[in-house]
Amino acid sequence: MKRYSLDRAKDELIGVKGTPERDQYEFELKLEIIGDLIQQARKERNLTQEQLGKLIGVKKAQISRLENNTGNITLETMLKVFTALEAKVNFNIQMLNNQINVA
Asked: What CATH code would you report for 6-84?
């Protein structure tokens, strides 16, 4: 039986880093992790999806979609969720190149 590292398996099954398929996979994985973190924080604070939704002014279904990565959500709503959960949010933005193009 041949052994593969996780990175090599991803490269062969999904595509190497920088390909559209791999970029989409990495993006969806990050969204999945964010949903899991929101669900974990909500449960640690003993809140139901409905209670969290009421705190930020959305329906339970939107909290469910966020936790399960099954719908689009605005950055504003996500920040409201983290604020209601008393979670600190940090963004790390890295520019891929230093060129600024203005059309």
From this structure: 1.10.260.40
